[in-house]
Amino acid sequence: MQLICEIDTGGFDAWKSGFDDRAEARGQAGLTMLQMWRDADDGARAVVLFEVHDRARAEEWVRTEGALHAPVAARFLRTA
């Protein structure tokens, strides 16, 4: 299962630094980052694709990340 997150960073560079610092927390949440994009029209918006190893822990990570760091719109996906 994959998770795609759209994140309104409020300032990409500062957000990215903090995001990198929280890599261990993402690992503990059962997430492996596969790809990150920066919106071509809105430089403060990031889109991140993760491999999900534990959906319940990933859902908790989304809630925590959104509450503490930046608004997150998340969608869980399965390969068709």
Explain what the structure shows.
With 80 residues, this protein is an alpha+beta fold. It contains 3 helices and 4 strands, in the order βααββαβ. A 4-stranded antiparallel β-sheet has the order 2-3-1-4. A hairpin with a 6-residue loop joins strand 2 and strand 3 (45-52). The mean pLDDT is 96.
Secondary-structure element series: EHHEEHE
Structural class: alpha+beta
Question: How are strands sequenced across the largest beta sheet?
Answer: 2-3-1-4
> What value does the average pLDDT take?
96
Strand share of the residues? 35-45%
Number of helices: 3
Provide the fold topology:
Blueprint (H helix, E strand, L loop, with lengths): L1 E7 L3 H10 L1 H6 L2 E8 L6 E8 L2 H14 L3 E6 L3
Briefly say what this structure is.
The chain has helices at residues 12-21, 23-28, 55-68; strands at residues 2-8, 31-38, 45-52, 72-77. It is α+β, with helices and mostly antiparallel strands and 80 residues long. β2 and β3 form a beta hairpin.
Features:
80 residues; four-stranded antiparallel beta sheet; 3 helices; alpha+beta; single chain
